[in-house]
Amino acid sequence: MALIHHHTSVYTTDVKASVDWYVENLQAKILKQDEERAMIMIGDMTLALTSSELHPPHIAFEVGSLAKFPCCKNEIKMHRDGSYYYYQETPDGTIIEWLYWEPALRER
């Protein structure tokens, strides 16, 4: 199964202050930002910063088809951007997010 690291998500108490810090100290580029979350690019890595408990800290991998998800189809959900996702927990409690976009909707 070919996996592509899509992003790593971390929790922050202040999205704006965190984004400002990453921009100033690591020359991050802002991809998306609102009051509850941001997506930034640091080199070739995408980092999600979130203040909402709706998006737990996790590591996200993109797969080439829904058939690659390690779960039953009825467990797959859809994000607002049209991507499909499934959260899975490792034995140590790390959350892995599986992502898939239909080719016409794919954006990074």
List the keywords.
1 helix, 2,3-Dihydroxybiphenyl 1,2-Dioxygenase, domain 1, eight-stranded mixed β-sheet, single chain, 108 residues, mainly beta
Polypeptide structure, described:
The chain is mainly β and 108 residues long. The protein has a single domain, classed as 2,3-Dihydroxybiphenyl 1,2-Dioxygenase, domain 1, CATH 3.10.180. The protein contains 1 helix and 8 strands. It has one helix at 15-26, and strands at residues 4-11, 29-33, 37-42, 45-50, 58-62, 77-78, 84-89, 95-100. It has an 8-stranded mixed beta sheet with strand order 2-3-4-1-5-8-7-6, covered by helices on one side. The model has no long low-confidence stretch (mean pLDDT 89).
In short, what is this structure?
The chain has 108 residues and is mainly beta. Helix content is 11%, strand content 41%.
Task: List strands and helices in order, with pairings.
Layout lengths: L3 E8 L3 H12 L2 E5 L3 E6 L2 E6 L7 E5 L14 E2 L5 E6 L5 E6 L8
Parallel strand pairs: 1-4, 5-8
Antiparallel strand pairs: 1-5, 2-3, 3-4, 6-7, 7-8
What number of domains?
A: 1
Q: Give the low-confidence spans.
A: none
How many helices? The count is 1
Radius of gyration, CA atoms, in whole angstroms:
14 Å
Structural class of the helix and strand makeup?
mainly beta
Main pleated sheet: 8 strands, mixed
> What's the average pLDDT?
89
> How helical, in percent, are the residues?
10-25%
CATH class: Alpha Beta
Shape: globular
Alpha-carbon distance between the termini?
20 Å
Strand order of the largest sheet: 2-3-4-1-5-8-7-6
- Percent range for β-strand residues: 35-45%
Element order: H for helix, E for strand:
EHEEEEEEE
- The CATH topology is 2,3-Dihydroxybiphenyl 1,2-Dioxygenase, domain 1
**Overall strand count:** 8
